[in-house]
Amino acid sequence: MNSRVRIEVPADSGFGPTHLPYGVFRPLGGQPRVGARLGDAVIDLAVALDDPMFAQPSLNAFMTQGPQCWREVRERVRAFADAELPAAAVHSVSAVSLDLPIEVADYVDFYASLDHATALGRIFRPDGEPLLPNWRHLPIGYHGRSGTVVVSGTEITRPSGQLKTDSGAPDFGPTRRLDIEAELGFVVGAGSAMGTPVTTGDFDAHVFGVALVNDWSARDIQGWEAQPLGPFLGKSFATSLSAWVTPLDALAEARIPLPEQDPEPLPYLRDGNWGLDIELGVEWNGRLVSSPPYARMYWSPAQMLAHMTINGASTRTGDLFASGTISGPDRDQRGSFMELSWGGTEPFDLNGVKRTFLEDGDEVVITASAPAIGGGRLTLGEVRGRIA
What we know:
8 helices; about 15% helix; single chain
């Protein structure tokens, strides 16, 4: 007779039955497959639901089924919190390895924080207006490289490139201003057809869930190449994504109104419904150095998706778009080391050592939490990276 087990979930677990994030895991010696996290356990959905759709190396086959399927599966998985499951369907998180949860189709990164944009404007243009004239009228973004999106825990190799020198001519070498950007990513599950923009009201019909992102940035490479175009090699070498994707439905209690937008956006961008009360934490070599508040983000993810498709561009299952750096007005709320050290001019005291940007061997861990349905808080999957 097959043995059965019940998953015990501590009351204060950030991965309780109202959360249930999805990921891709590998049992010891096994193949990658889709799982849902409950407490400190991973539920093998192919076994528990007897559905080969989940015996896959990514969430894409599941995500492409659309919102009705997402909600039906979520309700079935929630029932597992009060049931006994086949032992073969339950694995300890500590006994499995975690893979990139999605096959990334396209990757777009936005610049949606007013506090971050204002801080960078003051760093780069101390005698001018911090915001460029278009910033309050549209969510600014750039198209990144999907092939260098890696799962949390992947070591990051310091990139090399052209660096500006005092003579004005470039030199070539490893970046000396390696930075992070603490962000929230949004995963498209149900794509949209070319020529059919996604409205702000249809956001949750297309977006499957959210995951933490670290958009690693080589600021000196970026500063030299981004004249006049935007980020390229200074950004495209690596972007880290959490191994766990939190379904939008799990964030029902985290939804809040957006901050006031002045001037009022154009009609296709009007949306007051997708502010999110999510608190991030940035740890640098084991020390919490910043707690960026997503609640202050100026542009919502629904506005980002609407703007991204207003020209008729299509979206696909597995598209990833990120918020850009999440920052607040205070130093301990800044989501990048460029801001934390004010462009390298105000070194940060890290365990008694004055620091500005990342050195080899440094490790950064970004975490986040949000109000959970029924009380308490849920924990979004961490995104971790060490500079090799």
